[in-house]
């Protein structure tokens, strides 16, 4: 403190004509410091008051919950199993109602998509079938039917897969999933043993190659060529037997 006073005195002595302003400046500094100290004390006091109020309300709430027999349990981390179970519970509640709303459709579709993306095709089929059985037209129904077909195909149910693909191909003429449906129909018909019909559909698909110049659609056209080749191989194997 003595050092500060000495420095101030030195500053005052060397300040020349500005000596008259020095006391005013010092007074302002002192006042500013005093206000900062008061502000800090006020903030601390207010924080303690708020903290005490929160603690008091928490204690009261805990007592009320105990009286009602409600125990506070720790929050369990979400796992794939719990996510699927929550989605399933939501879908079950939706299906119990007579009417199905747009929000409900999205919840059901989300559950089916979760199963599909984790290769749980039986569960995906179960949800997608319930969704499509409602005979409700919804925004992504072509996507649902396409995924239903792929899920059936992965389960080895080629007849059901063919039915789902045909639904997309015939009922959704402007759908971006129509190419998937054509390719899927060809694959299913080969598995069933109807090689001629499979190649008719696939040759029609590759005949439109000029429309699909890049991206995933182009890859599907290339895939169709391979499937056509496989159809001849599979037919040859059957003929040899």
In brief:
With 241 residues, this protein is mostly helical. 77% of the residues lie in helices and 0% in strands.
Number of strands: 0
What general outline do the C-alpha atoms trace?
Answer: elongated
**Which structural class do you get from the secondary structure elements?**
mainly alpha
First CA to last CA: what distance?
107 Å
- Main beta sheet: none
User: What is the overall pLDDT average?
Assistant: 77
Whole-angstrom Rg: 37 Å
Helices and strands, in N-to-C order?
Answer: HHHHHHHHHH
Which percent range describes the beta-strand content? under 5%
Low-confidence residue ranges:
71-78, 94-98
The helical percent reads over 70%
Number of helices: 10
What does the model show?
It is a single chain. By secondary structure, the protein is mostly helical. Among the domains are: 60 residues, no CATH class; 80 residues. The protein is 77% helix and 0% strand. It contains 10 helices and no strands. Helix 6 runs parallel beside helix 8 and helix 8 packs antiparallel against helix 9.
